[in-house]
Design a protein that fits this description.
The complex is a heterodimer of chains A (345) and B (357). By secondary structure, chain A is mainly alpha-helical. Chain A has helices at 2-10, 19-40, 48-56, 63-97, 109-124, 129-151, 160-184, 186-196, 205-224, 226-232, 236-241, 246-268, 274-286, 290-314, 323-341. With 357 residues, chain B is mainly alpha-helical. Classes of the chains: A mainly alpha (345), B mainly alpha (357). Chain A binds chain B through residues 101, 106, 150, 153-155, 160-162, 164-166, 168-170, 172-173, 175-177, 179-180, 183-184, 197, 272-273, 316, 319, 321-322, 325-326, 328-329, 331-333, 335-336, 339-340, 343, 345, and chain B through 113, 118, 162-163, 165, 170, 172-173, 175-177, 179-181, 183-184, 186-188, 190-191, 194-195, 209, 284-285, 328, 331, 333-334, 336-338, 340-341, 344-345, 347-348, 351-352, 354-357.
Chain lengths: 345, 357
């Protein structure tokens, strides 16, 4: 037992338990700084002081204030919301399936949500934003069940290989239908083109206000069941032996993943690899306890997407890249590292 | 009354030419004949279908040159020989190449789920092709296969090296690394497209989803030479693939120069996949799914399985092209989309059948 407890404390950056809350506060402060920096960057350089004014002493006649309120702020908020949502969804999936490669994008859940939205748009022509979210939830939920079902068939249950393959193939399958619809329907394509590449541009605060509560509920729920997730991550047998009703906890976790991944996709389209990277980073910092992994994942997830977005709109100015592309460029090498060193056999 | 026991017929036939011999399963010629007939039927219907409809009978007569006195013969000739036949022939050839490529890769890695498209070859080839199209604008068609071949080969090697650990590559690492590299290359393609001219980009996007739309005889010409070199190499390597399938020790024991054979086979597999990408974009799942169907038809021995895979792949892609043209007429679905719709469920079924391995 001593070796186990030592390895838990020595394998994380924050060694002393008492320092974990402090780290969280420092993390929040850093994230805040990062967000303000992100707001100041763009086609027009705006001072941090002006940003402060625009947020707290908004002046309608000031052009800079308008840019900040209508363009930059929604963008930054959306980045934090989907970063947190996707990252927590990834953390839960990795804990639950004990699969270091689990991620809403890689397991096809984001593609499922995207397909549902495109299909809805194709049938109903134009949709209120709340319908986007609902459709994304349905798509994410159905896909999650199907991929997990196929990936966990047979001996050994949901191995990383089977889950990843099932996810990749299902994503290819469902994306074929998405493309088919977009080819036949120019109008839907126009409305949705940038969205399917995973981008944070051109959203307004109203949309965020409609969808973000779902992400909020998802994160809150995750924090509440984080103790049970920690137990489950030790293995289903262990969890059952400790008296946990694993079926219910798993079902609840699935609902949380769908809420988090679905709302993120509704906001920004499918963005991959966030849910893959962030939980690993969080584990390096705080160890194996999900009661701390989840809050740290929220912070780091928000930061990672914000950084990706800053890169996306600064490296090729005046053009900009979809943030999803930048995430893939950062995330794929990380996935290779995991596949090489962290997947056993 | 005595019953003379019949000697059981050998299940294969051996073709001999001096010291060389080639042993094929007895079911192969029959299967080949049936698939060819089915393909020809699809071909006729595929030519007859379209905005300018031609009856199947007229199609056959035009193909054979029997109705030169028909009042519409000039139209028939134009539509059949210039518009529809080349794209269908191209689909058939690419289908055959992709299926053979997949069959080799599965034999080589001894992994039933291997396919150039899962190993990132398609994406690597596509990245190079897109780069060439966007950067060099009007690049001659014949250069594209060279570029895609280099891109595909490089990607395959990189994936192989990244999956290499402790003196070997495991199938799991190979597939996982392949998926990640594919995602990375797809992101790079998007990157190029963002900078590109909007007209090139639209062109490239249609092309990326795998399409034989608007292809002509010049596309067939661009890949014909490659096929003439690499398909025979593939078919003649059947016996070493069989030996490799028995395990490295046995393969070495029967006197195979392992590394040389492996290198040649890998090269062949990548080449056959890459030329498809050069003229028709990325078409997935054909190489993955068809070899399994071929194995079920005529067994696992590669002498018969490779040619049957090629025929079956050609038939499948010809059919997929017809479906893509018919299903949402008057616009059309790229053939790569159709193969994903057909192939992915079959793959999931394979995953289900191999669930205990």
């Amino acid at each position: 037992m001593t070796t186990v407890s030592r390895s838990i404390t020595s394998n994380r950056l924050i060694g002393r338990r008492a320092l974990l809350p402090l780290g969280l506060i420092i993390g929040m402060a850093l994230l805040g700084l990062l967000l303000i920096t992100s707001i100041t960057l763009g086609a027009a350089e705006i001072d941090a002081a002006v940003v402060y004014d625009a947020l707290f002493r908004f002046d309608e006649t000031n052009f800079d204030h308008l840019i900040i309120q209508t363009v930059r702020l929604p963008r930054v908020v959306i980045g934090v919301v989907i970063g947190a949502g996707l990252a927590v969804a990834g953390a839960i999936m990795q804990g639950l399936t004990r699969n270091p490669l689990a991620d809403p994008g890689i397991l096809g859940i984001s593609s499922g949500a995207a397909f549902a939205v495109v299909l809805g748009l194709f049938i109903a022509r134009s949709l209120p934003m709340s319908a986007y979210a609902l459709l994304a939830f349905v798509g994410a939920g159905v896909t999650a069940v199907l991929v997990y079902g196929f990936g966990s068939l047979g001996r050994g249950g949901a191995t990383p290989l089977k889950l990843t393959l099932a996810g990749a193939v299902f994503a290819a399958f469902i994306s074929a239908f998405t493309t088919a619809i977009l080819i036949t329907d120019q109008e839907a394509l126009e409305q949705i083109r940038f969205w399917t590449a995973g981008s944070l541009a051109g959203r307004d605060l109203e949309l965020i206000a409609q969808v973000a509560p779902f992400t909020g509920i998802g994160i809150l729920g995750s924090v509440l069941v984080s103790r049970q997730i920690t137990t489950l991550s030790l293995g289903e047998d262990v969890a059952r032996g400790l008296g946990q009703n694993t079926i219910w906890i798993k079902a609840l976790c699935a609902v949380l993943v769908v809420l988090l991944a679905g709302s993120s996709v509704a906001l920004a389209g499918p963005i991959g690899f966030v849910g893959l990277i962030v939980p690993h980073v969080a584990r390096i910092v705080v160890g194996v306890d999900f009661r701390w992994i989840i809050p740290y994942t929220v912070l780091i997830g928000g930061a990672v997407v914000t950084i990706a977005d800053v890169i996306a709109r600064t490296v090729v100015r005046p053009q900009e890249l979809p943030a999803g592309v930048v995430m893939a460029l950062i995330g794929a090498p990380f996935f290779i590292y995991l596949a090489r060193w962290k997947v056993r056999r | 009354m005595t019953v003379t026991p019949r000697t059981p017929r050998a299940p294969w036939r051996t073709l001999r030419l001096k010291s060389a011999s080639y042993r094929v399963d007895r079911r192969v010629p029959i299967a080949a004949l049936i698939i060819t007939l089915i393909t020809l039927t699809i071909l006729v219907f595929s030519i007859s279908y379209g905005a300018y409809a031609i009856t199947p009978l007229d199609v056959v007569q035009t193909l054979l040159g029997l109705n030169r006195d028909h009042p519409d013969y000039a139209n028939f000739e134009l539509v059949v020989f210039s518009f529809r036949l080349p794209r269908i022939v191209l689909a058939f050839l690419i289908g055959g190449a992709l299926a053979t490529s997949g069959a080799i890769m599965q034999g080589l890695t001894r992994n039933p789920l291997a396919d150039p498209s899962l190993l990132g070859v398609n994406e690597g080839a596509a990245l190079v092709a897109i780069g060439m199209i966007v950067v060099f604008k009007d690049i001659p068609l014949v250069w594209l296969p060279f570029g895609t071949f280099a891109g595909g080969l490089l990607t395959a090697l990189v994936i192989y090296l990244l999956a290499w650990r402790g003196g070997s590559t495991s199938a799991i690492r190979l597939i996982l690394v392949g998926i990640a590299v594919a995602a990375l290359l797809t992101a790079l393609v998007t990157l190029i497209l963002v900078f590109g001219d909007i007209r090139d980009v639209q062109q490239a996007q249609l092309w990326l989803s795998g399409s034989v739309y608007g292809r002509g005889w010049e596309h067939v010409q661009a890949i014909a030479g490659w096929l003439l070199i690499f398909l025979p190499i593939a078919f003649l390597s059947a016996r070493s693939l069989n030996a490799l399938g028995l395990g490295e020790d046995i393969a070495r024991g029967v006197g195979l120069k392992m590394e040389l054979q492996r290198g040649l086979l890998l090269l062949t597999s990548v080449a056959l996949a890459a030329i498809g990408v050069a003229v028709a974009g990325t078409i997935g799942f054909v190489g993955l799914v068809v070899p399994h169907a071929a194995r079920r038809l005529i067994g696992p021995s590669h002498e018969g399985m490779l040619p049957i895979s090629a025929l079956l792949g050609g038939a499948l892609l010809t059919l997929a092209d017809l479906i893509g043209r018919a299903i949402i007429a008057p616009s059309e679905l790229p053939v790569g989309i159709v193969t994903a719709m057909i192939g992915a469920p079959y793959f999931l079924y394979l995953l289900y059948r191999n669930r205990n391995h």
